[in-house]
User: Fold this.
Amino acid sequence: SMAIDDIRITTRYDESFINRALFGSMHECGHGLYEHGINPAFERTPLADGASMSWHESQSRMWENFVGRSRPFWQSFFPQLQRAFPGQLDDCDADAFYRAVNKMHPSLIRVEADELTYNLHIILRFELEQGMLSGDIPLADLPEAWNARMKDYLGIDVPSNANGVLQDVHWSSGNLGYFPTYALGNVVAAQLWERIRKELPDLDDQFARGEFGPLREWLQTNIYQYGRKFLPKELLQKVLGVDQFDAKPLLRYLTAKVDELYGA
Assistant:
């Protein structure tokens, strides 16, 4: 965010793997929508920001996954993607593409992880941060500790530090303690999603038509406009009438999605 009316996003590209840029852009767009929706009266004040980084990540993860990895989204946008990539996607249909971008499997890279295994990447990093800060894990031993946890939690071997302990910019830029906000963001997003689907019961039909305005307007009215006016729990109380983060909606969402993809 340069300013409320000047939002800029970055993304990552891989010519042989579309997910990286596609879902990375959706993720950053979620952040941008939040910043752009803040009340203009808050411009150039400490209130011109999200309620917390967990709230901020709830928006990026919502647009990336709850919207961008949904079946109705691809019912609308897959024909456009096919036209953009003639040859590569000619023999694919929307259902097959939807299943491909939702494949559940352990992976090395956090930002490319599926919704089911993503939080294991966060737990791994949080535990290592605790060890670093307490002195229980010397920095020289961090790659070994990382590789051991990747094997333990996700069952995969790490081929290099570039694909392991050095893959995120957060630690190198001094952002210790940031990673848990992604997991908390997933939790908040799921809590919000249950309320949104009750208040916008035709959301799937809207997405299938390529219509996302009502969702953005709901978020604008209930979340974005307030910026940092409320503390995180105060905003949770205002929007949902609860004062605690609750993982049960996320578990319900993930269970339903895995059952739908792989059979109950």
The chain has a mean pLDDT of 95.
